[in-house]
Design goal:
Chain A: This is DUF742 domain-containing protein. The complex is a heterodimer of chains A (119) and B (472). Chain A is mainly alpha-helical and 119 residues long. Helix content of chain A is 42%, strand content 8%. In chain A, 44% of the residues are buried. Chain B contains eleven helices and eleven strands. Chain B has helices at residues 2-71, 90-145, 149-175, 189-198, 218-237, 269-279, 297-308, 344-358, 373-379, 417-428, 442-463, and strands at 187-188, 206-208, 214-216, 245-252, 255-261, 311-317, 323-330, 334-336, 399-402, 408-410, 470-471.
């Protein structure tokens, strides 16, 4: 698989993409958070990057890292964009899949201690 | 006797008288001739004197008026001869020759000074431009590397300053006859305008309206960016900080117009005429005549417009009271959108398909997870490797003894050679191209991660156990 040709780099700078904001409106987004487009929202008035995010996510859920990769934008910039789209109701985000429940470390330690005492 | 005596006296006297008369007459004639000659000589002297005075005055006029006018260049109109009587004479022609020689010498000196100034500035700006571009690249790299909003905030400020700095250097280099610098791929017109917006101080006040879906050809991207940036810079600089600058795009029959309206102070007639002169100036521009402090903006736009074939006018008033700048891009500089680069979405779809081809599917349980079933169906593909049934069975490990408590002691299980080989064969079989590429590209990794995420998501949907927290 050949990597796709990158978008013309450095023409539109990051501060124009986010209109000067670096802090996303929510800090719940992770790089593996899944985002999904809400269908039927008006696309008018969206900047080209936001529209591209919408079009990308319309095909199914994507992780934030993937969106950033396809748009060739820095991850932190992508987070700002996606937070805005979540605020405007264009996108729904799901938290990353939680890790499997591991047994309590203390319990394991007790078992180990018990075993050591026995053996 | 008396008569004899009188006769004797009479004749000599008569002769003398006649002689005297004749002499007097001749004398009188000579005197008259001389007087006449004297008069003509005097007249000639007087006319010569007048002539000399005229020439002296003309010389003074040359030194005091005509040559200084030439020295001052175009700021004072060229002076002619003071006295029209000399116009046809050889003297007048000589005077004109002197002035022409002087004009030639001045022009030659000006051109030489201009060229050397331009060459020096161009060389200096080239290194500055290279450094600015280098810095921009490292800023971009840092933005990619760090995932902290605080770092991003700082990087944005540095990036913003660097972009303006690069634009200044670029503008000066262009004025000095250099190329605008970076070669770019054909880009959407809207991105070109936003690129211009990136390079000015008050970029947040610029509002770009929707426009036609067209691309600017590769050759013209950077020049148009630079020209629009100069116009936007003028617009934001000469208007109140709380007003906005509107950019509207209007498709025309043989091109597209970019209209930039500001609500600023506008320009008076003198400024407009100066701006029009600079915009139409073209390549042969004197960088020493840009004023103090030098005003590059319109001159740069004029050079770029002449070189790349677009046109700019600033002589209309905007409906908001400021200046309306109109940049017309002819069809020759535009291409229809899409020919420039494959759209992002198509690439993403391609990757999704490719990622799913890579991954063996355990069950063809296709469930619609989104509105479009065609796209959702492959998204439900399970991205886990197929497992052989034997994998689930825990192989027997040899018991090596018993503990004091009676529990059996087992040795750590070691995979035998054939087990290892079998496992290798199993993993190699369904994924033959896995071994060919030991290093995955980031895109591949990203698409695999996405496939994994989609798989788990569909799995959760199947189990009807809503673990994920939905954000609204």
């Amino acid at each position: 698989m050949t990597p796709p040709r990158r978008r013309e780099q450095g023409l539109v700078r990051a501060y124009v993409v986010t209109d000067g904001r670096a802090h996303p409106t929510r800090n719940t987004l992770d790089i593996v958070s899944l985002v999904n487009a809400v269908t039927g929202r008006p696309m008018a008035g969206l900047t080209p990057e936001r529209r591209a995010v919408m079009e990308l996510c319309r095909g199914g859920a994507l992780s934030v890292a993937e969106v950033a990769g396809y748009l060739a934008l820095p991850l932190s910039v992508t987070k700002v964009l996606i937070s805005d789209l979540i605020d405007s109701g264009h996108i729904i985000a799901r938290a990353a899949i939680p890790k499997a429940q591991l047994p309590d470390v203390q319990l394991l330690q007790e078992v180990l201690n018990g075993l050591r005492a026995r053996l | 006797m008396t008569s004899h005596i009188s006769g004797v006296v009479f004749w000599p006297v008569a002769v003398v008288a006649v002689v005297a008369l004749v002499m007097w007459v001749r004398q009188a004639a000579a005197a008259a001739r001389l007087g006449k000659r004297l008069a003509t000589a005097e007249q000639e002297v007087r006319s010569r004197e007048a002539d000399i005075r005229v020439r002296e005055a003309e010389l003074a006029h040359l030194v005091d008026v005509r040559l200084p006018a030439v020295e001052l260049g175009g700021r004072r109109p060229q002076q002619g001869l003071r006295d029209d009587r000399l116009a046809g004479a050889a003297y007048g022609q000589r005077m004109d020759q002197v002035v022409n020689r002087f004009v030639g010498a001045v022009e030659k000196a000006r051109v030489r000074a201009d060229q050397s100034a331009k060459a020096t500035l161009k060389a200096a700006m080239r290194s500055v431009q290279a450094l600015a571009n280098e810095q921009q690249l490292s800023i971009s790299d840092m933005q990619d590397r760090h995932d902290s909003p605080y770092v991003l905030q700082d990087l944005m400020e540095i990036d913003h300053a660097n972009s303006q700095f690069a634009r200044r250097a670029q503008a000066i280099a262009v004025l000095c006859g250099s190329w605008p610098g970076r070669q770019r791929a054909a880009s959407p017109l809207i991105d070109v305008l936003r690129g211009a917006k990136s390079r000015i101080r008050d970029y947040q006040r610029v509002e770009i309206g929707p426009g036609p879906d067209i691309d600017v050809i590769s050759r013209a991207v950077e020049p148009v960016v630079l020209a629009v940036a100069e116009l936007l810079d003028n617009a934001t600089r000469h208007s109140q900080p709380n007003t906005s600058v509107e950019v509207t795009l209007r498709p025309a029959h043989n091109g597209t117009t970019v209209v930039i309206d500001d609500a600023g102070v506008g320009m008076d007639e003198l400024e407009v005429s100066l701006a029009v002169e600079r915009l139409g100036g073209g390549e042969n521009l004197d960088i020493n005549r840009l004023g103090d402090p030098p005003q590059f903006g319109f001159a740069v736009i004029g050079v770029l417009a002449a070189r790349y074939g677009f046109s700019v006018s600033v002589d209309t008033r905007s409906p908001y009271g400021g200046v309306r700048a109109v940049l017309f891009l002819p069809k020759a500089l535009l291409v229809t959108a899409g020919t420039a680069a494959a759209p992002v979405v198509a690439r993403a779809a391609h990757h999704r398909a490719a990622a799913q081809d890579d991954l063996p599917v355990r069950t063809p349980a296709v469930r619609a997870v989104a509105a479009e079933p065609a796209v959702a169906a492959p998204a439900a593909a399970e991205p886990v490797h197929e497992r052989a049934p034997g994998d689930d069975e825990v192989p027997q490990t040899p018991i090596t003894g018993a503990t004091v408590g009676g529990l059996p002691k087992r040795r750590r299980r070691e995979a035998s050679g054939e087990q290892v080989a079998a496992r290798h064969a199993r993993t190699a079989e369904p994924l033959p191209d896995e071994d060919t590429g030991p290093i995955r590209t980031p895109y591949e990794t990203a698409s695999r991660m996405g496939a994994f995420a989609r798989g788990t998501r569909s799995g959760r949907a199947e189990s009807a156990d809503d673990e994920g927290t939905t954000q609204e």
